[in-house]
Amino acid sequence: MINAAIIGMGRWGQTLVNSVTGGSDVIRFTAGMTRTLSKVEDYAAEKGIRLHGSYEDVLADNDVNAVVLASPHSAHFDQMMAAADAGKHVFCEKPFCLTGAHAKTALDTLSEKGLKVAIGHNRRFSPNAIRLKEMIESGDLGDMIQIEGNFSANMAGYSGEWRDSRAESPVGGMTSLGIHAVDMFVNLFGYVANVHVLSKRVAIPFDIDDATGILMEFENGQVGYLGTVSATGHLWQVRTFGTKGWGCIYGHDRFDVQMTDGSTDAETWDGYEYPGMPTIRDQMECFGRHCEGTDTFPATPDQILHATQVLEAIIRSAESGERISVG
Question: Is the pTM of this model over 0.90?
Answer without folding.
Answer: yes
